[in-house]
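Summary of Year 1 activities. Much of the first year was spent building the evaluation harness for sequence design. The harness presents a backbone, in tokenized form, and records the residue chosen at every position. We chose the following record to illustrate the format because it has been used consistently in internal testing since the harness was completed.
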């Protein structure tokens, strides 16, 4: 049986690795059952679903495909660096990094930082588009997480919080 799609094969393996990690990490929490879910129920089930999907994708990689197979191309470094960096920046801005003396900047600033930095993952990114998207996401996130769900985390930068 020949490998028809390298992309599908590697993607399926990544799904299975991430799903297995989620499921394995969740067993240290109380799982519960569908009627009385514990804190580990959702990550455990999500992990199992990812492993199942990864298995299906990996299996489909052996089906017939284009002549020569669907090969993996070069690594897209620009999107990889900007997307990962944007997520790290979001976390650092949201709660700060006390070890480096960086105070919490809050949800609004963190969302603007995330969207603007992630926007540069695309060639020809425009700051105006990122600012509009960030404003919409900031308002929506504030309404959803702070007002509706009552989650307690900093919303504004430390100097505007009081």
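For this record, the design step produced the sequence shown next.
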């Amino acid at each position: 049986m020949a490998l028809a799609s390298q992309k599908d094969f590697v993607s399926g393996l990544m799904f299975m690795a991430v799903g297995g990690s989620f499921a394995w990490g969740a067993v240290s929490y109380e799982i519960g059952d569908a009627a009385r879910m514990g804190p580990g129920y959702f990550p455990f089930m999500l992990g199992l679903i990812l492993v199942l999907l990864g298995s299906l994708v990996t299996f489909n990689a052996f089906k017939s495909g284009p002549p020569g197979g669907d090969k993996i191309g070069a690594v897209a470094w620009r999107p990889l660096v900007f997307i990962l960096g944007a997520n790290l920046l979001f976390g650092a801005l949201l709660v700060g990094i006390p070890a480096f003396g960086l105070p919490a900047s809050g949800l609004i600033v963190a969302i603007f930082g995330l969207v603007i930095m992630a926007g540069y993952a695309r060639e020809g990114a425009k700051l105006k588009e990122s600012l509009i998207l960030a404003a919409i996401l900031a308002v929506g996130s504030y309404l959803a997480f702070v007002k509706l769900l009552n989650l307690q985390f900093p919303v504004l930068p430390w100097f505007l919080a009081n």
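The chain has five helices and no strands. Quantitative recovery figures across the full test set are reported in Table 2.
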